[in-house]
Amino acid sequence: MRDFKATRAPEPNAKWLKLRVQLLSGLFLTLLGVAFGRAVQLQVFEQEKLRGLAQDQYVRQIEIPARRGDIFDRRGTPLAQSVEVDSIWVDPSMLPDVRAASRALAKALKLDADELAARLGRAKRFAWVKRQAKPQEVAAVKALGLPGFGFTKEPKRFYPQRELGAHVVGTVGLDGRGLEGLELAFQDELSGQNSRMSGFRDAKGRKLLVQGTLDPLERQGATVTLTIDRHLQYVTEKALAKAVEDAKAVAGMAVVLDPRTGELLAVANHPRFNPNTPESSTRTGMRNRAALDTFEPGSTMKPFVVAAALEQKAITTDSVFFCENGAWPVGRHTINDTHSYGWLAPRGILQVSSNICMAKIAQQMGREKLVAGYHAFGFAERTGLALPGEGRGVIPFPKAEVALATQSFGQGLTATAVQIASAYGALANDGVLMRPYLVSKVVDPDGVVLLENRPTEIRRAVSAKVARQVVGMLESVVTKEGTAPRAAMEDYRVAGKTGTAQKADPVARGYSDKRIASFAGMVPAESPRAVILVVVDEPKTDVYGGLVAAPAFKEIATAAMAHLAVPPSRTVAPEVAVAAVSPAPGAAKPVAKATVPARPALAEAVTETPEPGTVRVPDVQGQVGREAVVKLLAAALEPQVMGSGRVVSQTPAAGSLVEKGARVTLELATRQ
User: Fold this and answer.
1) Binning pLDDT at 50, 70 and 90, where does residue 587 land?
2) What is the pLDDT of residues 382-414, one digit of tens each?
3) Could you give the angle at which helices 417-428 and 464-475 cross, rounded to 10 degrees?
């Protein structure tokens, strides 16, 4: 029997089903092949690229700001340091109401609500709320409980001495870069190197974990040590502030310099400012005018003209000049003195500050020698303090006769306060001009010395003999007959010079009625340890340096001598004070009313002065051991104590002239 099912032809549906199965199988095999090929491409050929993309999602290169280096005074007192503080940031996209949050933040942080709202509105995922916030401000923001806030540690500059030395040290901005002073001058050395390291973050970009730790030395800037003495800086700023306020002046400057080394022990400016709150001061108020600004000094320049004239043998100490009784026509101009004087020697010219006779000394020298004399003392050249914008000053060549006259008494030329102090330092240092410097050394955290300044001799301005002669003349300035008796000290001999300069008016191209009063002096005169310059700008009560600036000099000098443990000078007897005004050399010549009897020699005017490098042994008999030792150490002597109680004998005897550092044996005993 035939099987009709076996012989029956396949139905069309079965054929299409088989075809569809084959097509789907081929498609799936093709897709599987493509996927496999793509996987091979991604896993093998694009492996590094994909790994980098993945890391970008959860790994971030975090920049760790460097800790700025510290600034110290000469004794290690910190003037500028860096501390870690919190800066506040926010993800604005997480704030439910940006404007309401801005108002709350503005109230907590004392910010402008509209400005903060505008700033947060412009940002998408990140915005600073406040950089370098105070701890109480951070606590206030946390107390708000708002989402999306973060707190990042940043180094903040802190000035522990506040206004003290602020113009010298300078200040930095929010980004940690120096804006003024040494902070700007040594930006590269102080800033250090910022570090970068890998850290993880979550889906919202928040830092979760930082890998590894950093060597703190790699994040720290170099340390800068200054020549400034904190104690002398404080005394100088205090005395200067009093002088400026008493004179109702607009500003003031003061410099204290060690003439033997050129170290600047104090550089003060007034008004002062607090670098911890620089926003309360202007950029002009932060400027170190004593080192950077130039001005016409006036009569404080006269000693350099006398010194140059003596050095060039244009005059002698016995030369006399007729001061024209107070008025002297030079071309269309008239040179005036404050008082009427007749015949004066160089000592008298400096003592009473005669402009007319100083102009005649300049005539005797000639133009070229006058300019050369100023240049020898370092004027019209930068002192090299490493401060950006340091003034150079100008000494124009005096083509006209009146220019020659005015430049001889410090008008028509400019200088900085540091230049003037440095030039007086040359007179105090037996004629040798030392380079003034403010930075002692700069040291890396690992101990490598990047910069070290040492006493550097620039040149010999005048001979030691001429320098001592001029210093001796300047001692007469602080006598009753001189222009600065208020600068005289009871225990120390003082040599100095007053200055009262007219201020130039750049608009009218002439001189205004405003003045600059100054006094520059050295103490003790027989062996100067400090040169002090005080400048008061536009005084209102008095305009003369002897009245305005000299008292501040005395206050600073008194503190400096005690701080530096300088033994007192042998005093000048009042009855043998120097007579500076000389009579006319001939009977036929007119004599001014101010003329006094004959001029005694310098040797007759002062008591004996020990030779350089020697000192007289003080009398310590009867003093307790501790007091005697302190007195000997102050006199640069080495005490050797035997026994206890009070001093009954000393060897060498009191008054003996010995070398500094010599040993003095003290025998002590208790009273029976």
Assistant:
1) very low
2) 998 888 888 899 999 999 999 999 999 999 999
3) 110
CB atoms within 10 A of CB 85: 19
Do the Cβ atoms of 660 and 566 come closer than 8 Å? no
Percent of the chain residues topping a pLDDT of 70: 84
User: What average pLDDT is seen over the chain?
Assistant: 83
Handedness of CA 304, 436, 484, 472 (dihedral sign): negative
- Picking from 158, 634, 133, 589, the residue whose alpha carbon sits closest to that of residue 342 is 589
- The residues with which 639 forms a beta bridge, in sequence order, are 664
Identify residue 234 by its one-letter amino acid code: Y
pLDDT in tens, 656-668: 777 777 888 888 7
| Contact in structure between 522 and 528 (CB atoms under 8 Å) | yes
SS3 content of the chain, % helix, strand, coil (to 5): 35, 25, 40
- CA–CA dist 240, 330 (Å, integer): 37
- For residues 485 and 554, what is the distance between their CA atoms, to the nearest angstrom? 10
Kind of pairing between the strands at 223-226 and 71-72: parallel
Check residue 198 and give its pLDDT: 53
Q: How far is CA 550 from the centre of its chain?
A: 23
Secondary structure of 409-423 as H, E, C letters: CCCCCCECHHHHHHH
Q: Is the confidence at residue 563, as pLDDT, over 80?
A: yes
User: What are the E-state strand segments in 506-603?
Assistant: 510-523, 530-537
Q: How far apart are CA 192 and CA 597, in angstroms?
A: 68
562: which DSSP letter? H
564: which 2 tokens?
């530096």
Q: 494 and 556 in contact (C-beta within 8 Å)?
A: no
Q: What is the residue whose two structure tokens read 């402009």?
A: 355
Name the residue among 391, 417, 505 with its Cα closest to residue 240: 417
Distance (Å) of CA 534 to CA 256, 531, 549: 9, 10, 6
Residue-wise pLDDT tens digits, 76-96: 999 998 887 778 888 887 888
* Residue range 356-371, pLDDT digits in tens: 999 999 999 999 999 9
Backbone angles phi, psi at 14, to 5 degrees: -65, -40
CA distances 398 to 331, 360, 395, 406, 416, Å, are: 14, 14, 9, 9, 20
From 82, 102, 299, 354, the catalytic residue: 299
Is 299 one of the catalytic residues?
Answer: yes
List the helix and strand counts (H, then E) for the chain: 21, 28
Residue type, 586: G
CA angle 193, 199, 201 (to 5 degrees): 135
Closest CA to 314 of 354, 255, 384, 362: 362
Q: Which helix (H) or strand (E) holds 654?
A: none
Strands 638-642 and 657-659: unpaired
pLDDT in tens, 182-215: 999 999 898 877 665 555 555 555 554 444 444 5
